[in-house]
Amino acid sequence: MVTRLYWHPIYLQHLTSPGHPERPDRLRALHSVLEGDEFYGLDRVEAPMGDEEAILYVHPESLAERIRAAVPEEIDEEERERGLAQHLTRIDGDTVVSPKSWEAALTAIGAATAAVDTVFTGKADNVFVASRPPGHHAERDRAMGFCLFNNAAIAARHAQAAHGAERVAIVDWDVHHGNGTQDIFQADPTVLYCSTHQMPLFPGTGAKDETGVGNIVNAPLSPNTGSREFREAFTSRVLPALDEFRPDLIIVSAGFDAHHRDPLAEINLDESDFDWATGKLMDRAERFSGNRLVSILEGGYDLQGLSQSAAAHITRLMKG
Ligand SMILES: [Zn+2]
């Protein structure tokens, strides 16, 4: 398998408040693991800046304008002398923007759409996008939950608009339910959204009976469950839905906060579970979508749990 990694240094410049779990160190930890010899063959490409028009695949212009207007100016000399380190603007209780956030968010969109182009033009079989800010909580009209724009949803629409994909499946194993992705596609039978997540937990959506137009498959997991329950949910709910849908592209909303070390949730997965789930999705990608699989980083807040799990995921993507 040829596996491409999209990354960009601008992702480290989207800053959040001190002590915020969604922080630049997440990507630093991941990049340090990816320096290992076993990742020598990874095709690393600097992500292009996204087209602002791509935001409009899934969000109204008013949301784009609201986010852009909220982005603060760089700090000036006088403010630095007063001891201020950075400007942050709050979008909601836990979502903030810093001076470089607009550029980072657009480059996250650029990576997501470039990843789709990459697998449809055969430049790689699959792609991992190591970007921030994450996206799956961003609803059509609302940025929330550390997310500004919904990168995975934009990637799905781009596959349809630019490459003629008829059916796109988004599989979301982040420990939080992707309320944003569900909100965007719940009336659209051309996109299948499957999610495993802890329930109850933020954001509160994701019950089994939220089924959209038959295109939403939620597999909630009880707190303090682990590998057995996750694999059972994947095997009995997610994989059969994919088999029936026969996607032209599989997009993974790859959060690694269901890892047992993660501080934000109580699901006890480890690296081997992400390796296993990746293998199952690659099997479906081989069968239905010419191996095309685009995986986009979402959450994961323990630096070791995140970096080791993402490494297991990427290793599987490379091996096939
Ligand atoms: Zn999460």
UniProtKB/TrEMBL annotation:
SUPFAM superfamilies per the UniProt record, alphabetical: Arginase/deacetylase (SSF52768)
**Gene Ontology MF terms:** histone deacetylase activity
What processes in GO biological process is this protein linked to?
A: epigenetic regulation of gene expression
The Histone deacetylase domain is annotated at 20-315
Signal peptide residue numbers: none
Spell out the InterPro entries in the cross-references.
HDACs, His_deacetylse_dom, His_deacetylse_dom_sf, Ureohydrolase_dom_sf
Highest taxon, organism lineage: Bacteria
Give the family this protein belongs to, as stated in its UniProt record.
Answer: Belongs to the histone deacetylase family.
Protein name per UniProt? Acetoin utilization protein
Q: Which organism is it from?
A: Phyllobacterium phragmitis
The beginning of the lineage is: Bacteria, Pseudomonadati, Pseudomonadota, Alphaproteobacteria, Hyphomicrobiales
